[in-house]
């Protein structure tokens, strides 16, 4: 039997209407627009409305991706949502989305790998398609990270924002997704975390809520090293040189992490997709949002080779090498 591969046939993205600028943050914590831009590259981020949830953002991004792919709800055989900020403890946000979009079949589930979540989800969906189990998958990264941010902590609140990105993955005779790799190192779980949770009875809570805590400097160093090595290993394993790569689509956490990693990889910044200035770190949504933007503005074109990669709490990280066909 001929081998089956997967390829991306549609992308979508959604950002909530409300924009929070660095100048707005100046009146909330002891910070300045200049500090935030110099240390992170972020100018603004989008924040979900009070009654807007992760599933609402996911729905908009998914509809756009389905429209771009020209498919109907009944064509989708698998839904995976990468999120750290699910609407409810259960059911999964993917099950809620399945109902909202009138998708008549499953499976549907959430994946929790924080900022690397979309890479994890794409890796899983690709394997479902390659095995012949399903022909078409909806893969979403969606977050309302603003809900787990302590808005009095200047170390973290300037970094994150809300949003969603989505792709439709379809069975194909040629790759599409050339290769994917995901990994984790739980020894570093405490460097970036929300310390409270359901099973630990919310031991670390402020005002009844659990928030992101981060040792920024350590995370920064680790992210540059892990992402640099990840990209080099992925290219080497697939006998590709950096010159043969058309676009690098990295997780948008900090422009300094992105440029340090690009320098390590010897890829010029002109071939790196950057959205960090416009919407900060949207966690699992950051890679699909950046991919969607570059597809829609015409930079990413058929025939090109693209490397997606991300790093997140856990630590988790990974990459997906794509021939955009
Ligand atoms: N405004 C002004 N000053 C701030 C600030 C803010 N928003 N946040 C921190 N500072 C201060 C610190 O308190 C510190 O002051 P001190 O020297 O008096 O103690 C000073 O700025 C320098 O802090 P430092 O942590 O050394 O800065 P940095 O260059 O490492 O930048 C981060 C801080 C958070 C931007 C950077 O470490 C980072 O991006 N880390 C990775 C975070 C990340 O990407 N997380 C998600 C990964 S998926």
Explain this structure to me?
32% of the residues lie in helices and 24% in strands. The chain is built from ten helices and 13 strands. It has helices at residues 22-26, 33-40, 54-69, 93-100, 117-130, 154-157, 216-237, 255-265, 276-279, 286-296, and strands at residues 5-14, 18-21, 44-47, 78-82, 108-111, 136-143, 163-172, 177-184, 192-193, 213-214, 247-250, 305-312, 316-323. The strands form four sheets. A five-stranded mixed beta sheet has the order 1-7-6-4-5, sandwiched between helices. A hairpin with a 3-residue loop joins strand 12 (305-312) and strand 13. Helix 3 (54-69) packs across helix 4 (93-100) and helix 7 runs parallel beside helix 8. The mean pLDDT is 96. The site of coenzyme A (COA) has 21 residues, from helix 2, helix 6, helix 7 and strand 12.
